[in-house]
Write a structure and sequence with these properties.
It is a multi-pass membrane protein. Keywords: Membrane, Transmembrane, Transmembrane helix, Transport. The chain is an all-alpha fold and 506 residues long. 76% of the residues lie in helices and 0% in strands.
Length: 506
C-alpha cells in the first residue's frame, strides 16, 4: 500500500470509530438530562477533554498552523484568545453556572431577571450555534477533498452525516465519548508528531531563525489591532456561547467546572503556541512546495513531512477538531431551538409549548433526537449551498457579543441589573452592531469589508453597556422574590429532585 492509501485507511477507521461511540453513548442516554448534558456527571478527565475538544476546532488547528506559516510566532494569538476565554469563564463564572442546573443561556437570563423579555436572546443564540455548526461542517471539505478526491458538496455531506448520526443517537454522552478520542488524537497529532517532525525538518529554531525574516519571532507580528480583535471577538464570545455553557452544565461539581475548565484553557494556550511553531517550521521545511492558501499548510505537512501512517493520524486529528466543534454546536442549536425559541415563538401566538416530557423520559429523548436530526440536516444544507458561511458566522458572533454579552455578564456580577435594562441593552446592542455593519458595508470598497470590520462589535458593546447601566439605575430593582430564588440557585440550595420544569427555569 502506498502512503496515500494508508492515510485514507487511518481516517476511515477513525470515522467508523465515531459511529461506534454513537451507539456506546446511546446505552447511557435514558432521559433529557443524559441527552443534553450527559446527566451532569462528568468528572475532571472527561470534562477537561470535552471542553478542550469543543473549543479547538478547524480554525484553531488547521487555521492556527496556517497563521504560523504566514505570520510566525504571533500566529498563536487566535488560539491563545480562545484559551483565555475558557480560562476566564472557568475561573470566574463556571462554578456559578454549574449550580444553576439549567440547559440554556436564555434560561439563566429568565432566572436572574424574572423577565420573559430576555427570551429573545434564544433567537440570536440559535443563529450563532447553527452557523458555527455549518462552518465546522463545511471545513471537512478541506481534508476530504484532498484525501478522498471527492466533490466538495459530497465531502460535506459525508462528514456532516457522520457527526449527525453519532450526535442524534446518543446526544451529549456520545459527543463526550467521541470528544475524548478526538482530544487524544489532537494531542498526539499536534504535540508529539507534527511539532517534533516539522521542527526537525526545518533544522530546529536556529534553522528557522536563519531562513526567515526577523518579524517571524516578534509577538506582535500579526498586528496589534488583529490581536485585540481576537480577544474581543473570541475571548468575550466564549464567555457566553451556548455551546460552551452546555459543556459547563455537564460538570459533576462546581469544582470540576472551575478547575477542569481552567486546565482546558491552559491546554488551549499551549496548543496555540504549538500550532504557530509548526507553521513557522513548515514555512522553512516546505519552501520547495507551492502552497496556494495558508489553510493548505496543515495537509501539506501531513503528506510531505511525516512518515507513512503518521500523516494519516495527523489528518484524522484535523477531522477530529472539526467534528468536535460541529457536534457541540449542533446539540447546542437543538437545545436552544427546543427550550427557548419554540416557546418564545409560540408565545407570540398565545400558545404554550411543553418542552419536556417528565412522565415519559424516552419520549423526551426521542423529541431531542428529532431536533438534532432536523437542525443537523439544515446545517449540512447551509454548508453546501453557502459559499461564505464564515460571513454569516461573523454576523452572528458580532450580535452575540455586541448584543448579549453585557446583559449576561451583568446578571452574573451586578445585583442592581434589571430585566428591562437587560432586554433594552440586548435590543440596542444588536441594532447598533447590525446598523454599523450595514453602514460600513454600503461604504466599503470591497464586498464583506463591512461585515469583517471591527467597529460594529465595539460600538454595539459600548451602546449595550451604556443602556444597561442607565436603564438599571432608572428602573425599579428586580423583584426581591426573583433575587431570592436566584441566590438560592447560585448557592446550590435547589433540591436535586426538583421537577424538570423548575430546573429549566420555566
Amino acid at each position: 500500500m502506498d502512503a496515500s492509501a494508508i492515510n485514507i485507511a487511518i481516517v476511515v477507521v477513525y470515522l467508523l470509530a465515531m459511529l461506534a461511540f454513537g451507539w456506546w453513548g446511546k446505552s447511557r442516554t435514558r432521559n433529557n438530562s443524559d441527552f443534553l448534558v450527559a446527566g451532569r456527571r462528568l468528572g475532571p478527565f472527561l470534562y477537561t477533554g470535552t471542553m478542550a475538544a469543543v473549543v479547538l476546532g478547524g480554525a484553531s488547528t488547521v487555521g492556527g498552523v496556517g497563521l504560523g506559516y504566514k505570520f510566525g510566532i504571533s500566529g498563536m494569538w487566535l488560539v491563545v484568545a480562545i484559551g483565555a476565554g475558557v480560562l476566564l469563564l472557568s475561573l470566574l463564572f463556571a462554578g456559578t453556572i454549574q449550580k444553576l442546573k439549567i440547559y440554556t443561556v436564555s434560561q439563566m437570563l429568565t432566572l436572574r431577571y424574572g423577565s420573559r423579555a430576555t427570551e429573545a436572546s434564544g433567537i440570536v443564540m440559535l443563529a450563532y450555534t447553527l452557523m458555527l455548526c455549518a462552518t465546522s461542517t463545511g471545513a471537512y471539505a478541506t481534508i476530504f477533498v484532498v484525501l478522498f478526491g471527492l466533490d466538495r458538496a459530497l465531502a460535506i455531506a459525508i462528514g456532516g452525516a457522520i457527526v449527525l448520526v453519532y450526535s442524534t443517537i446518543g446526544g451529549m454522552w456520545s459527543i463526550t465519548l467521541a470528544d475524548q478520542v478526538q482530544f487524544v488524537i489532537k494531542t498526539v497529532g499536534i504535540f508529539f508528531l507534527m511539532l517534533p517532525f516539522t521542527l526537525n525538518a526545518a533544522g530546529g529554531l536556529d534553522g528557522i531563525r536563519s531562513r526567515v525574516d526577523a518579524s517571524f519571532f516578534q509577538m506582535d507580528g500579526i498586528g496589534v489591532q488583529t490581536i485585540i480583535t481576537y480577544f474581543v471577538v473570541y475571548t468575550l464570545g466564549l464567555l457566553i456561547g451556548q455551546d460552551i455553557w452546555q459543556r459547563v452544565f455537564t460538570a459533576k461539581t462546581p469544582k470540576v467546572a472551575r478547575w477542569g475548565g481552567a486546565t482546558a484553557g491552559i491546554y488551549c494556550i499551549l496548543y496555540g503556541v504549538a500550532g504557530a511553531l509548526i507553521g513557522m517550521a513548515a514555512n522553512v521545511a516546505l519552501s520547495y512546495v507551492k502552497i496556494a492558501a495558508k489553510d493548505d499548510v496543515y495537509a501539506e505537512v501531513a503528506q510531505n513531512l511525516l512518515p507513512v501512517g503518521i500523516g494519516g493520524l495527523v489528518l484524522a486529528a484535523a477531522v477530529a477538531a472539526m467534528m468536535s466543534t460541529a457536534s457541540g454546536a449542533l446539540i447546542a442549536a437543538a437545545t436552544v431551538a427546543r427550550a427557548d425559541v419554540l416557546p418564545f415563538v409560540a408565545g407570540w401566538f398565545g400558545k404554550k409549548v411543553n418542552t419536556g416530557d417528565t412522565e415519559n423520559p424516552e419520549h423526551d429523548v426521542k423529541a431531542n433526537r428529532i431536533w438534532v436530526l432536523a437542525l443537523g440536516i439544515v446545517a449540512i444544507v447551509i454548508a453546501i449551498i453557502t459559499k461564505d458561511v464564515v460571513a454569516a458566522l461573523t454576523i452572528a458572533y458580532d450580535i452575540l457579543v455586541g448584543g448579549l454579552l453585557v446583559a449576561i455578564l451583568g446578571g452574573l456580577v451586578w445585583k442592581r441589573g434589571t430585566g428591562l435594562a437587560a432586554a433594552a441593552s440586548m435590543a440596542v446592542g444588536s441594532v447598533v452592531t447590525l446598523g454599523t455593519m450595514i453602514i460600513l458595508e454600503i461604504n466599503a470598497k470591497a464586498p464583506l469589508d463591512g461585515v469583517y470590520a471591527n467597529e460594529p462589535i465595539y460600538y454595539g458593546l459600548i451602546a449595550s453597556a451604556v443602556v444597561y447601566i442607565a436603564a438599571s439605575l432608572l428602573t425599579r430593582p428586580t423583584d426581591p422574590a426573583v433575587m431570592q430564588a436566584w441566590q438560592r440557585r447560585v448557592s446550590g440550595q435547589e433540591p436535586e429532585d426538583a421537577p424538570e420544569e423548575v430546573l429549566a427555569g420555566r
